[in-house]
Write a structure and sequence with these properties.
Layout lengths: L1 E7 L4 H17 L4 E7 H5 L7 H10 L1 H15 L1 H26 L3 E4 L2 H13 L4 E5 L17 E3 L3 H9 L7 E2 L16 H7 L7 E5 L2 H7 L1 H8 L4 E6 L4 H10 L6 E4 L5 H7 L2 E4 L3 H10 L2 E5 L7 H7 L5 E5 L2 H9 L15 H10 L3
């Protein structure tokens, strides 16, 4: 059986989410034709500090000073000299192990869903042109320069705005396919209606429902306005608190007295809650924004983590469905009170974008 190799590093959940979406799309487009493997290649290579991307990203999400430093490094690394120095060091430290691993897998296709991996994949393709490779970008507008893979067969851009950035970095226009983003194909499988979803968690289908999607860390920052909303008996809140049980328990404890607040863990059927909610609140992760846009619901965007998410906000607020509230509890509460029902067509995205990506990859000769 031929193999699809999807490579990433787990710096934030978005890259893993993209990889899983592509794996699902492969299974739909070419059932039983491919063995699909997803690997955090930097973890496998175990070369410090590159193997600690998950811990570094987690630290950035919790510390404003570290986020500021992250943004400075991001800008330096996107400049000509900074990118050359960073890429040369990356290739020097990691390329040999990267190449050895890929050869051991004998893949038919290799896909990168992380800019650091794309730098290594670009070098690999330059040295081994017979392999079929693609980069799938998971930031909407503000791009890490590593995404600009000059050697891969295809580069998938999520937006027209990102195409301009890619070509400015030297990617040939004929290699770029857009606008395509790895949206989970399962997102359209919302089989439960609103009444069934809300009744199952002891909430009232008749009440105005706000769904908070920021996970445990993001929700902790919003506990004060969430409690204020929950104190209004005409409204109810759902919180997706994520996988961290300690954070989930802390949130549950703080909201225990409110019967109109449901605190849930990690959701593998988040589409049911998008469909059931009247308003959604969450941080500007690209997958969240594009998924919500498919449901044509109002979303309040909370503060970003890292400069790379700024472009996501700029892109989303082109639709009246999206309002940026940042870290302002006052603005969040004001928007929750606004019972505006006017909605546009969202961001004009397609439920099947992951399928389109895989179909294009399969065309590589």
């Amino acid at each position: 059986m031929k193999k699809f190799l999807i490579l990433l590093t787990d710096a934030g959940s978005g890259h893993r989410s993209a990889a899983n979406a592509l794996k699902k799309a492969i299974e739909i487009v070419s059932p039983d034709q491919f063995d699909v493997e997803i690997h955090d290649i930097l973890k496998l290579l175990a070369v410090p500090p590159y193997d600690s991307g998950d811990r570094l990203y987690s630290s950035v999400t919790k510390n404003a000073v570290l986020e500021y430093i992250h943004n400075i490094i991001f800008n330096i690394a996107n400049g000509d000299i900074g990118f050359e120095v960073m890429s040369d060091e990356l290739v020097k430290k990691l390329y040999s192990g990267f190449e050895k691993f890929v050869f051991s897998q004998s893949p038919e296709y290799i896909i990168s869903v992380h800019p650091t991996i794309s730098i290594l994949l670009s070098e690999f393709k330059k040295r081994n042109p017979k392999f079929k490779t693609a980069t799938v970008i998971t930031d909407l507008v503000t791009l890490n320069r590593g995404w600009a893979d000059l050697n891969s067969d295809l580069v998938f851009s999520p937006t027209k705005e990102a195409v301009s950035v890619l070509t400015s970095y030297g990617v040939k226009m004929e290699k770029i396919k857009y606008p395509l983003f790895p949206i989970n194909p399962d997102i359209q499988l919302f089989n439960k209606d609103k009444n069934a979803v809300l009744s199952a968690i002891n909430l009232d289908p008749e009440k105005f429902t706000i769904f908070f999607t920021s996970g445990g860390l993001g929700t902790i920052k919003l506990l004060s306005p969430i409690a204020k909303i929950a104190s209004d008996t005409s409204k109810q809140v759902i919180i997706a608190a994520g996988k961290d049980e300690k954070l989930r328990d802390k949130i549950s404890s703080k909201l225990a007295k409110y019967k109109n607040a449901a605190v849930l863990g990690f959701l593998n059927n988040i589409q049911d809650y998008y469909n059931a909610a009247d308003t959604i609140v969450g941080k500007p992760g690209p997958a969240t924004l594009l998924e919500v846009s498919l449901f044509k619901k109002k979303m309040l965007i909370t503060e970003k983590i890292g400069i790379q998410e700024q472009g996501n906000i700029d892109y989303a607020v082109n639709s009246i469905n999206f309002v940026y509230v940042g870290a302002s509890s006052k603005k969040l509460l004001k928007e929750i009170k606004t019972k505006d029902s006017k909605r546009d067509s969202g961001l004009g995205r397609d439920w099947d974008e992951s399928l389109h990506i895989i179909k294009e990859v399969l065309k590589i000769s």
